[in-house]
Hypoxanthine phosphoribosyltransferase
Amino acid sequence: MNLNVLIGEQKLQERIKSLGKEITEYYKEKTDTIHAVCVLKGAIHFFTDLVENIDLNVEYSFIHVSSYSGMESTGRIRVKSWIDEPIEGRHVLVVEDILDTGQTLSYILGYLKRYNPADLKVATLLKKTSKNPIVNAEFVGFEIEDKFVVGYGLDFDEKYRNIPYIGYLE
Ligand code: IMP
Ligand code: MG
């Protein structure tokens, strides 16, 4: 299988830096501490690079869910692990790798809302433009075409996660 570059390393890092600034600006009048929730496994690289560029105290939580099998979303969400700290009254930022149909996020947000956070926002590295996701992300790194992408955390059957750029398969 051939891997083509969609977003190179430098472009990724530059955008994540500016996204970190946008996020800092948004919160800084509201709070000095946010609670960032990394959606594993795909968002791991984006999460670590993003939080380093947020100029606030950032608490971490990790959620592990899966819905994909190969290149297709199964529509069934499996929760493998969940947040372990209370988020009531906190400013919560969910960090996702890619917004496709939005089913995964919709599920996660629905549950997190029940804990009554003060604020609940989403940062996603990628968003597929052609899709009309059922949930919205306030902070989007890049809008991309409807291609199956891998790298920088994103996988195809657990492969290609450790590639430092966003590529696509043909
Ligand atoms: P959604 O529930 O359809 O929005 O799918 C979101 C999840 O599916 C993401 O968190 C990814 O793990 C996975 N996913 C969606 N599109 C892609 C892709 O192009 N490459 C790799 N994983 C993807
Ligand atoms: Mg995946």
Remarks:
- Residues 42, 68, 155 surround magnesium ion (ligand 2) (CB under 6 Å).
- The radius of gyration is 15 Å.
- Residues 9-28 form the longest helix (20 residues).
- The chain has one domain: 3-169.
